[in-house]
Prior knowledge:
Elements: H1 6-27, H2 33-44, H3 55-75, H4 79-84, H5 86-110, H6 116-127, H7 131-140, H8 147-177, H9 193-228, H10 232-253, H11 258-269, H12 275-299, H13 305-308, H14 310-334, H15 339-348, H16 354-365, H17 371-403, H18 407-413, E1 435-439, H19 442-453, E2 458-462, H20 465-473, E3 477-480, H21 486-491, E4 499-503, H22 507-519, E5 525-529, E6 543-547, H23 548-566, H24 581-592, H25 594-609, H26 621-635, H27 642-654, H28 664-676
Parallel strand pairs: 1-2, 1-4, 2-3, 4-5, 5-6
Amino acid sequence: MEHSLPLISTLVIAFSLALVFGFIAERFLRSPALVGYLLAGIAAGKYTPGVFADASLANQLSEIGVMLLMFGVGLHFSIKDLWSVKGIAVPGAVLQMVIATLLGALCAHWFFERSWGQAIVLGISLSCASTVVLLKALDVRGKLTSPDGRIAVGWLVVEDLATVIILVLLPPFASIMIPGEPGSAARLANSDLAIVIFKTLLNAALFVALMLVVGRRVMPWAMAQVARTGSRELFTLFVLAVAVGVAYLAAEIFHVSFALGSFFAGMVMRESRFAHRAATESIPLQDAFAVLFFVGVGMLFDWHILITAPLEVLAVLFIILFGKSLAAFFLVWALRYPLHTAIIVAVSLSQIGEFSFILIGQAAGLGLADQHLINLVVAGAILSIALNPVGFWLDPRLRQFMTSRWKWARVAAMREAPFEALPAETDPEKLQDQAVVTGEGPMVERFAHALDESGVPVVAVVDDEGSAEALSQKGVSVILGDPSKDETWVSAHLHRAKLLVLLDSSAESLRTAEAARRVSPELPIVVAADSHGIWPEVDMQKVTFLNTLDAAARLISAQTASAMKAGAVMGERVGPDAPDPAEVQAADRQEDDPEAKKSRDEADIEAAMAEEPHVEKKPRPVRRLANFIAVLRRKRPADAAPEEADEAEVKAEAKPEPKAESRRDEAGLEETESSAQAVPPVEKTADATPSGDKPQASAAKPAP
């Protein structure tokens, strides 16, 4: 079938068939949509009757999908995250590739009667998993940023680096395995092998150094300049140009893969404060081109091999599903990681994809593979990708099966990765009537630390290992895990908590709240964010909303008013007359000293009795907000009756005001806190007032 517009016809055929088969897979076959995309590719390929798309164009379009997906992963994956999993990702990935290569080579040589050169190439092609498939699988299940997801992604990054080196070493390997035969001009003499390896490692090192030294400074600055124009189109164009352009230049200049180039581009762009916006803007492009990737894989499949060589296909599939997975499982288990981590990594690697096609394709050009081997690899890729979701579905059932039968599995299930549970020496006072804080971004670290400094027992729940490490160094009890999972809240002792603070109002916060309520059904929840988000439409009891912008503005205004009345200067000095940072750190250390703190408290009491003005250092807005939550917990218990609250406020009003000017700031804070109690609750209960009316009596002072 001839096409005058091959690009347009390829896109039309690919998207149309992907829509139809994806809908059938989701609606009728109860399978993931990507299974439908693979079937669409088979239907659009040259091995099936009817219309067919341009396979070479589809392959190039799928490469763009790989670039955008890896760029998106880099935006959520920092250098610290990659470095934190090096202890398991590097040895695990290398050993797993060696084991899978040996299994494939022995099987191909003994049972398929292939030469050792072809057998080794087949084994290498079966050893590297598909990054695209893994990212989609982890993202759909909400595990992409979890500790297990980071290990799996880091594992595949190491595999990608190893594959780049293997691609460079294939020509000299072909010269060794089939000497004397005419082949590609790219073949090298054996004496040049060390030079090739050195150049490959040098190019990769230069690219990484360039991205970390120059890219981390230039790219975030450029993104900020584009964002300041206010043009959404320019911002999206910038994201697309960086993701594709850096990948292309990395491949052309430094001879690394497109996937690695775009991945490191995303990691350096993560330094920008617009990284979240860039990730959001690129999602539609990622989804569209990811569809083309799976369609392109299906177009390579010659289904006749299922009839002509079914045993060989089953052998290849067995190595991918069980050989690789078992090797990865026992490697993770031997490195003393928890059972769930070993299973997730094993399931994540039980498939092959884009790098396998690149390897077997280059091997075919060097005479190390024929069309039959290519069909075997493509068949193994399609079948393993289609069966990969079944592995994730079996994950909890495998854990239950193994722990019920083997002692070593029960021991592995009780292992805990760093920060997955509170240490045994945690102060018991922090595990009773504590405030539990969760959310994303630096606000969680600052808020939890400020709340801990105010004397309130607090436990922070984060899904970022860097944040967990930072909080732990500050002495805050922290749990590293997925907030939407019940076991995370069990580890945080949520059933003993008095309050849960969600520093987020997105759809993800709803899943977090639902998981928390399954562990502690009656726990009061405070949603602290700059907007209501989805919460006005949520039917959940004992949930209140605190606008962080309004609360910060009120607290800062009270601080400003009290400072003006006292004739003091609020805030910290900046500029030429700012204090020396070393002196500030020394003062902070002295402030943490219990004896020094006791002396300061005694001095404050004497100053107040003498009615001498005393200007103290004003805390920051984040500290003020933490104090506000602390007062909210002490003065507004969730089960207090409205009448009791009113009587308490009347008594509080009857108390005399402090006379010392050093307490005026605290008086202004109390006024702000009282006015802030009038924030209406999010949930719609029977005694809730309609929108726009006055709030409940328990949340505000009675009218005179």
